[in-house]
Amino acid sequence: MGGVIDFIDMSIHIASLFMPNPTMLASGILGMSAETLRRAADSGAGAVVTKSIGLKPSSGYPNPTVIQVKCGFLNAVGLPNPGIHKFVEEIRMLRDLSVPVIVSVFGFSPEEYAEVAGLAEDAGASAIELNLSCPHVKGTGAEIGQDPRMVKLIVEAVKGSVKKPVFAKLTPNTADIVRLADAAVSAGADAITAINTVKAMAIDVETFRPILSNRFGGLSGPAIKPIAIRCVYEIYEAVGVPIIGCGGIWSWEDAVEFMLAGASAIQVGSAIAVEGLSIFKNICRGLAEYLARKNFKSVREIIGLAHKK
Ligand SMILES: Cc1cc2nc3c(=O)[nH]c(=O)nc-3n(C[C@H](O)[C@H](O)[C@H](O)COP(=O)(O)O)c2cc1C
After folding, report:
1. CATH architecture of the domain covering 3-59+75-199+218-307
2. Residue 188 region, left (φ>0) first, then alpha (ψ -120 to 50), else beta?
C-alpha cells in the first residue's frame, strides 16, 4: 500500500476464519459463480459470500426485479439460484482461493437449511451464512427470521450438521433485532451479519402500479446505513460474538463507522454496482491511512470504540 500504512495490521479473525483485511463481498452481488467470486477476491476482498443457495433450483421473479431509487436500490429478485446440488461445482472450483468462501444458504425449514449447509461444507465452504432475512420470499428469509424461536431452531439445526463457523444474517424488519441476535447466539451462531435489506416499495405514478413485479422489495444502499449502524451498535452491546456490518457501505469512512459501532468486518453490496470492484482496495487504503493518522497499529483496535464511556 505504500509508506507508513504498510505497518498497519489489517487482518481479522471471525470465529476461526482468517481474513487478510476486514472487507467482504456481500451475498447476492456477483456471488452466483466461481468466476465472479474469484474476481472479487482478486480485487482485494478479504472474504467472499455467495448468492443465497437453496435446496432446489429456482428462477426467481419476473422483471422488473431491481430498480434504482434516489437513495439506493430496491430489489425483489426472489432468490434465483441453481440449487445446492448444482452449486457445489462452483464451490469446489474455489478450493484454492486465498480468502474464505462463505456460502449463504436459505431453506423453508430448519432441516432444509441444515441439509443445504451440510452439502456446502462438504464441497469446501469455509463458513456458512444463514439468510434469515430476505424480505421478499414467502416461507423463508425474513418471514421466518423475524421469529426468535425460528432463528434458534434454524441455527441449532445447522450447528448440528456442520463443523465450520455459522453466521446468522439478520433482518432489520423487526421491532427488536437484539432478540434475534440473542436467539442466534444462544443457539450457537459464531457471528452475526447485520443487516439485510429493509422492506420497501415504489409505485409508478403513470401506471398507478407497484414497479417491482413482486410489489414489495428490499431497500439497500446509502438510505439504510444509519439503520444498519444502529443495529450493529445495539447488537454489540448484547452479544459476545463478532459482528459483520452491512448496509450502505460506499467508502472507508462508512467502514470505519461500522467498526466503531462494533463490527469486526464489513460487507459491501450495492456500492459495487456503482463503484466497481476497486472499492475493496479503496476502502482498505483509506482505512489503513486513517489508522496510521490516529496512531493505531491494528484494525482490531477500533472495533466497538464508540461504546467506550
Ligand atoms: C440485487 C441484490 C440481491 C441480493 N441477494 C441477496 C441474497 O441472495 N442473500 C442475502 O443474504 N442478501 C442478499 N442481498 C442483500 C445484500 O447482501 C445486503 O445485505 C444488502 O444489499 C445491504 O447492503 P448494501 O447496502 O451494501 O447493498 C441482495 C441485495 C441486492 C441489492
Report:
1. Alpha-Beta Barrel (3.20)
2. left
231 classed as catalytic: no
Where do the structural domains in the chain lie, given as residue ranges?
Answer: 3-59+75-199+218-307
Q: Hey, whose CA ends up nearest to atom 5 of ligand 1?
A: 28
For residue 65, the ligand 1 atom closest to its alpha carbon is 1
Which position has the grid cell 414497479? 211
> What cell numbers appear for 204 in the block?
409508478
82 is written with which cell numbers?
441453481
Q: d(Cα 142, Cα 133) in Å, to the nearest integer?
A: 4
Give 204-254 pLDDT, tens digit per residue.
Answer: 999 999 999 999 999 999 999 999 999 999 999 999 999 999 999 999 999
Q: Whose CA is nearest to atom 11 of ligand 1?
A: 131
Name the residue of 24, 25, 29 to mutate for ligand 1: max ligand atoms within 8 A of Cβ: 29
Cell numbers standing for residue 74: 430496491
Cα–Cα–Cα angle for 195, 276, 22, rounded to 5 degrees? 50
Check: pTM over 0.90? Answer yes or no: yes
